[in-house]
Amino acid sequence: MREIVLINITGVDRPGLTAAITGVLAQGGVNILDIGQAVIHDTLSFGILVEIPDTEQGKSVLKDILFKGYELDQQVRFTPVSEQDYQQWVGNQGKKRHIVTLLTRKVTAGQLQAVSSITAKYGLNIDHIDRLSGRMPLDTPADKGKGCIEFSVRGEAADPQALRAEFLSVAQELNVDIAFQEDSLFRRNRRLAVFDMDSTLIEAEVIDELAKAAGVGDKVSEITERAMAGELDFRASFKERLALLKGLDVGVLDSIGASLRLTEGAETLFAELKRLGYKTAILSGGFTYFAKQLQAKLGIDYVFANELEVVDGKVTGVAIEPIVDAQRKADLLKELAHKEGLRLEQTIAVGDGANDLPMLAIAGLGVAFRAKPLVKQSAKQAISTLGLDGVLYLLGFRDRDGQL
Fold this sequence. Notes:
- The protein is of the alpha/beta class.
- It folds into 3 domains: about 5-90, Alpha-Beta Plaits (2-Layer Sandwich); about 95-185, Alpha-Beta Plaits (2-Layer Sandwich), CATH 3.30.70.260; about 190-400, HAD superfamily/HAD-like (Rossmann fold), CATH 3.40.50.
- Helices cover about 40% and strands about 25% of the residues.
- It is built from 16 helices and 16 strands.
- The strands form 4 sheets. Strands 11-10-9-14-15-16 form a 6-stranded parallel beta sheet, sandwiched between helices.
- Helix 5 packs antiparallel against helix 6 (about 160-175), helix 7 (about 205-215) runs antiparallel to helix 8 (about 215-230) and helix 8 runs antiparallel to helix 9 (about 235-245).
- The chain is elongated.
């Protein structure tokens, strides 16, 4: 009678070990039903679920594996599996899978305990845990670290909304980011990424910088803050702020443009997206003048932003239609996806303000980046602890995959 056995092998990793073990199994005419291997700090954990035939060669295979393990200085454990248990395991395939991604400056046991406890609470089983971030020296400064752990989980969440709410609460408490997304074909097949500009690609709100030069900085900054938090209608607030810039000398644009700083991780993110064949775009409620500078610097394919009207060397304070507001951003995302022959599930949108929420909602991956609480709560995913290149982790990108 055939046997089904789970073989677990642990010990110091070495070249040729897998070949040696499977060689013994091959001599016994064994069928492989499942297999998995992981190496952590040069220590191997190797599991093989096998079907052993009722033959002369098959009868000695477990003894031969035990001897081979001893020869290779490995610990070997056998666990019999009934056909009923195996058939139940087979029947569970096809269940939904999700990816839980933990992003932080430094990974702690408390963070992992929180994530794993919440997944278990909502009926999800962890199948795999992988580290996507590179190895970090022990003396890495606290604000320079990059840690990312990816959990592959199986099952249907008992209450997805409550699960997300609990992840968000724990993330705020532990100063981490926790992303929860379906592990679908589209997650690995995205091809268009669009970005807000101000406070997303750059570390400033350009209109606030212009207002400072015009002597109305405090007033405009207050309106900007409320608009990005969702307290004011963007279109109305944009016109109000722009009107306050009337008479500003156009000569200040160059100096402001030269002073703008890219957000942490922006250059890495765009270099990798370009290498992976993505199309990229700026969809900004800011100004084309500055967006074009970023386009040249980062190699961005498309730019859609607002025109800053200038007459006789002075800013007129009049808004030129169409204004790139919240709905316009969402419409542009749809148009670009159609132009590139893509489904919306294959798109990524990243922004920080309330006027970004419509495009974040329809993108396959919508990320609120260093956003206000209202935006973080409303968006599908959020990144606040790492730089902009943290978006790569949500795609399953490993640091070792990079070529920078």
